[in-house]
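Changelog note: in this version the structure field was regenerated for every chain. One regenerated record is shown below for reference.
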Amino acid sequence: MGLILPLTILMLILGTTCGAFGKRESKVKTAIFLSPKFELGPGSVANKYDYDIDFPRGHIALKSFNAEVIDELGNPVPLHETYLHHWVVARYYEAKHVATHTRYDGHRELHQSGHVMVRNGGICQRDVLGQYFGLGSETRGTATDVPDPFGIVVGDPAEIPEGYEEKWLVNIHAIDTRGVVDKLGCTECRCDLYNVTEDEYGRPIRSDYKGGLFCCYDESQCKLREGFEGPKRSLYLRYTVKWVDWDKFIVPVTIYILDVTDTVKIADDSSGVVLEHNCLTEYDVESCSSGEKECLHVKRTRVPVQKGGYVIYGVAHQHSGGTGSSLYGKDGRVICSSVPKYGKGKDAGNEENYIVGMSTCYPRPGSVKIMHGETLTLESNYSSTHGHTGVMGLFYLLVAEQLPFQHFTHPSRSSFFTNINTLFS
């Protein structure tokens, strides 16, 4: 059966789950939406920013967000045809008098003063990695559920500035690898395969930059096998959101995204000591020498966090070649380890040689705590039998300031506002 249009599909399925330690029955709502259409031909790249996407509204607690790329018939598209480099979903406030333009290609984003980004809890500089949700090739096989009675609270009228309304955007970065000469090289955005020496803004790419986001921007083209021809096709990101309406029994969690490329400097200003983060989001893995017994590239960084809490959920994000990532406390204890699952076949969700899932951490509430001001160690491991370009070593955490028995009233929460223009700079 063909995909039913209009392109936004909404299915509300009301279910019942036990909430807040038996004090109430919370009705989990589920909605399935489609992003605006994007088109890809063999070897081509889409890096789209869609604003004011369909999303649950009101004062709610988000419980899960999953996504996958589908074709016009609603069929899941395998990674060996369209590689999902990443998708991210971010939250922003828009002045009510501002007219929304919903589609922006590449990094050409909104430039009106009537928009402010509401970023996660940090900790990277400015609005780098400021999204609420985001995954890549591992999307279909990675759990994202937030356990009861916790939730990611959004839509609080008390937090939305007067004259503004809350909206959401999605960035979809997908690479069509049908007919390319080197599938892995194209997904790792090797500059020589894209035949580029300038970024999307026309700025020269430095000579030692072998591959990464600067070389596989929107509408760029990876090298095809000679004579290969194939049709363009229309694709969509189908995303599923689960949530519950806000009530006093929900315990809010804060989102933290850590980056193994982060280098932290301590500086002083008029307000005291300031931590200056420099998250690069991507890095290269050099191939090991033939004499090495173990071809494993280990990258580590030490990251101080100003605000701690109880870890409720954790998961890493890696690219092909990744072997796992771990987050350690100051005393060396393991806060969370997350390892990739590689596919073994051809079907969507089980594609051979692609990461199709990441293991997650769901500690018993109260059993894993990060102290205020604690310095954490993040480690990201990749196989270096072959070199890799543009890989990532991110770690996504949900942290609660309080446990349920401590949570009698909604704690005060502050939003992190930044200019939306540099969200993914």
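Spot check on this record: Residues 49 and 171 are 4 Å apart (CA to CA). The chain has one domain: 29-100+111-400.
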